[in-house]
Amino acid sequence: MSHILVIGAASVDVKGRAAKALQLGTSVPGEIRVSFGGVGRNVAENLARLGQPTILLSAVGRDPFGAQILEHTANAGVDVSRVIITPKRHSAAYLAILDEAGSKTFAVDEMATMSLVTPAYIRSYRALFKDAAMLVLDANLSPAALASAISAAKRDGVPVAADPTSTTLAPRLKKHLTDLAIVRPNLAEAEVLCGHPIRGRTEAMIAAKELVSCGVGTAVIALAEEGLCYATSREQGYIPAIRCEVVDYTGAGDALTAAIVYGLVNGFPLGEAMRLGVSAATLTLKCYDTVCPDLSLERLYDQLVI
Question: Could you list the residue range(s) of the whole structural domain that residue 286 is in?
């Protein structure tokens, strides 16, 4: 199998889930967990757990968290040998406050370490692009790094998948839509990419087709508990969500992205790749960790949407 090259953030996730209604200005009882995250790193780990050879380019600090991030990610099967380890910055971190249902209410990320993922660093691993089945990017990359990675992929004919990451970072992808084989925004990120409000499933389908008309190969808009809409120049579709008891929403979108990429790289029909994505997201929703530790293709098929 050809490898997938992932360039994006690697961080430590600190998540606090309230046991009762959150109250502004005071603390409430709850549960605090630490796991490993970063959109790019999460996608890479999910891909590796599905059996796909995966290489991660990122940056961490020369600190205990950085060592743990790399050890955990390597143990999952990701090649992290080229990740920058710097003494000049501490490892990236993501802090989320979840309500009683596991939904994110507030979040803060510190991704300054990603400034070390420069065009020069990306060019230094130019050889990794030549045999890659796909390049996956998250929008934590600087505009210059994004442009450099996409340019390198284009030179070698490598398809590019991108995750907008957040409404704050999604604008970085707007100028690159014509270069993307896959883009996977949620509803709010799709509004940023399309430049107008999107209300409900019907408008989401229209927006997916709008992104395709802008040059995207496959546009997938995640609709949270409603499932997803997708479109290409030849087909479009809707996959409902799988009902489940949600433990934590964090990482579900990254699992969705990874499983869709896995399916398309390995020749699955488009609709089946989308169903694999929904299945992966569901397993992650039921898991305390940002990436489900027992994710596998067999587990995806156990609960695949018909």
Answer: 4-302
CB 55, CB 6: distance < 8 Å: yes
**Distance between CA 234 and CA 9 in Å, rounded?**
33
Structure tokens at 140: 């934590």
Neighbour-count burial of 238, counting CB atoms closer than 10 A to its CB (0-12 exposed, 13-18 middle, 19+ buried): middle
Residues 145 and 117: beta-carbon distance below 8 Å: yes
Q: How far apart are alpha carbons 4 and 13 in whole angstroms?
A: 24
The rounded distance, in Å, linking the Cα atoms of 280 and 176 is 27
Query: Nearest to residue 181, comparing CAs of 77, 250, 297, 273?
Result: 273
Rounded distance between C-alpha atoms, residue 30 and residue 238, angstroms: 36
pLDDT, averaged per 10 consecutive residues of the chain (306 residues), comes to 95 92 91 94 98 98 97 98 96 92 86 97 97 97 98 98 96 98 98 96 98 98 95 97 86 97 97 96 92 93 71
Domain harbouring 119, CATH code? 3.40.1190.20
Residue-level pLDDT at 247: 84
Question: Count of residues for the chain?
Answer: 306
Rg (CA), the chain: 18
The domain tally of the chain equals 1
Chain position carrying tokens 């596998």: 296
Check residue 246 and give its pLDDT: 85
Per-residue pLDDT at 306: 53
